[in-house]
Write a sequence for this structure.
């Protein structure tokens, strides 16, 4: 089989595709014939932290078809279309290869009518978004229709891959969704994803605009740039509100007014999806699957998430596209030619 390989210390352009033996699933594992592999910023960053001297197959997310199972796994899973999550976490075997073996629970069935593109675009972005939207002390632990009814959610960076998932999941769950973006074009993408209100932070006073929409403040903020937005978030977060931040984009250090947060029962919560508690991750996987079945999680321009496609032989270019902060949309690698 063909697999993309990267050796620690090499730069982005030196991922290469090589022939490797097709793996055999161990007990508790499934083998998936990968159709599409999704690329995330975390995949690019993780390559710098690979164990010294060991070749690594990149990419956490993907989609495909189960073609073999290991001991203890239901054989009826063979032939099932699945989406993959955390394929490469603490492992050397990611989804950028024609076949990958991984624990059965990390290969999640999805319906026949849902495209492999959707399946490969879930994983890290959707799991992160679900976590951010379920952090409120009095909020739901699993999203679904009506779960966020009566709540107002602000999604910073609504044209990003996590922001896109957060908008769609929040909208599906009944929230009023506000999103901030940096341009008119990105605003159109956030609107396509389902945001009720889109604010160009370069053109309007975000705090003033949000307070007009939600006079008592917002209950949840899904944040990509906590340092840059700390001040405005303080102005728009309501009593008991939570900021879930999943990146340190725009500055890794920032100050928060502890006394004001204490008096208003507010919280800032960091999200590193790989170390999210297992029970929360199980709830997220279940909810994401339900959203996909309902048609509430989509990809493509009409869903606010443009796609950028690369063949497996061009996986280095795919990673470079993700590393380029100007790329707007989801980067996918077509592992299996249709």
């Amino acid at each position: 089989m063909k697999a993309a390989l990267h050796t620690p210390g090499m730069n982005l352009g030196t991922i290469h595709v090589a022939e490797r033996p097709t793996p055999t699933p161990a007990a508790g594992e499934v083998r998936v014939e990968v159709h599409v592999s999704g690329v995330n910023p975390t995949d690019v960053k993780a390559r710098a932290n690979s164990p010294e001297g060991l070749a690594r197959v990149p990419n956490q997310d993907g989609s495909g078809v189960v073609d073999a199972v290991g001991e203890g796994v239901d054989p009826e899973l063979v032939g099932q279309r699945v989406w993959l999550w955390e394929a490469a976490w603490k492992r050397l075997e990611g989804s950028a290869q024609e076949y990958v073996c991984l624990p059965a629970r990390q290969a999640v069935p999805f319906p026949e009518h849902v495209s492999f593109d959707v399946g490969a675009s879930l994983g890290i972005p959707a799991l992160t978004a679900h976590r951010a939207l379920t952090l409120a002390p009095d909020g739901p632990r699993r999203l679904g229709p009506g779960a966020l009814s009566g709540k107002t959610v602000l999604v910073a960076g609504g044209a990003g891959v996590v922001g896109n998932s957060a908008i769609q999941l929040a909208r599906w769950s009944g929230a009023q969704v506000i999103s901030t973006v940096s341009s008119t074009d990105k605003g159109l993408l956030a609107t396509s994803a389902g945001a009720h209100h889109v604010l160009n932070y370069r053109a309007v006073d975000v705090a003033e605009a949000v307070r007009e929409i939600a006079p008592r403040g917002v209950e949840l903020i899904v944040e990509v740039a906590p340092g840059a937005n700390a001040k405005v978030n303080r102005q728009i977060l309501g009593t008991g509100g939570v900021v879930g931040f999943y990146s340190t984009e725009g500055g890794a250090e920032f100050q928060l007014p502890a006394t004001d947060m204490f008096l208003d029962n507010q919280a800032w919560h960091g999200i590193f999806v790989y170390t999210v508690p297992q029970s929360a991750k199980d709830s997220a996987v279940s909810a994401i699957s339900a959203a996909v079945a309902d048609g509430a999680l989509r990809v493509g321009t009409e869903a606010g998430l443009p796609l950028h496609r690369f063949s497996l032989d061009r996986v280095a270019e795919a990673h470079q596209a993700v590393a380029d902060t100007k790329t707007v949309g989801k980067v996918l690698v077509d592992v299996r030619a249709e």
